[in-house]
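Input.
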Amino acid sequence: MSIRILAIESSCDDTSAAIMVDGQLISLGVSNQEVHAKYGGVVPELASRAHLQNIVPVIVDVINQAGLEPKDLSAIAFTQGPGLLGSLLVGTNFAKSFALASNIPLISVNHMEAHIMAHMIDDPKPTFPFLCLTVSGGHTQIVLVKSPLQFQILGETIDDAAGEAFDKTGKMLGLPYPAGPEIDKLARKGMPLYSFTHPKVKGYNYSFSGLKTSIRNFIIKEKNKDIDFIGSHLNDICSSVQKTIVDILLHNLEKAALDHDISEIAIAGGVSANSGLRIGLTDLCSSHNWTAYIPKFEYCTDNAAMIAMSAHFKYLKGDFEQQTIAPEPRLKMLH
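Output.
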């Protein structure tokens, strides 16, 4: 009998649902929340309210796209964490209610593990073990992926994430939120003419708080000399910031790959859509004769397809949850 999974992703500000049948993605829907743009960041209360409005229409749409009915489903999966508590509560409670009413298994999924498992949706797929650099607005990690359900964090940020560094820099430059894509677009028109701090951290860990301070001090210094400096040098500033962040990310990734003798290298998470990181990873892997795995753009940002893929492997193992399960905003990866 086919394994038909309905998956829900509601960890932040995107409401997403997907249907996966026997490990093959059948339908995917995402509802974005535009309300946060004017605040320069995600407002948790507004995000959870928007999820309440969006979750049923998105789920109905993907079930209809798949040509299924609720009674045809084998299980329902949801993001347990990490994420915003209010947003997670919406997805968790809907999934629990749906599972109880339909008498089907309930599967919880770790959001960060799911980002990595997005690589198993389409070909080419990495072979185990492989390294994955997972970069987003809230997380930056180097993960040794031993199997679909075995992950070891080799390094992670000790303060701010790479995605946050992009967004906070964009705010300092007067760019709209989210600033990451805008910096990427402007960076392609400029040259990396300026140098910023490369924080030194032990092992494979990262730190981006010092970099943000370095960028802030640079902007203040140059504006004091020329009030129009940002406007006339914006492309070059963005190019310099992007190159610095990418260099920091890839330096530790290269070190981890060499130390662990891993030649299958992947990236995941929202920042994996960045063109500079994609080009940098491709060049790094080419120089070492490694194989690079770069996700499709639709699997970089938060989406339910990756939740469904991770849930598929948990279903095969019989890893189901009880109705007492609760969302965990600070949920850690398996080790």
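The CA atoms of residues 158 and 314 lie 30 Å apart.
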